[in-house]
Amino acid sequence: MTDLLSAFALLLVLEGLLPFASPDLLRRTLLQVAQLDDRSLRLSGLASMLAGVVLLYLARH
Hints:
Layout lengths: L1 H20 L1 H12 L3 H23 L1
Helix pairs in contact: 1-2
């Protein structure tokens, strides 16, 4: 459970970096993402999940 909370805390820190460092860039990025079609969003989500699984595997072995 401690590992899960640590991972969630790290996620929050990383997610907060862009809005803290450059709010304008975040707004422009979100506007561009909002214009993507569903297929592109799903593929980017899948790529992100797969990258996360690979990184977790590499970190644990």
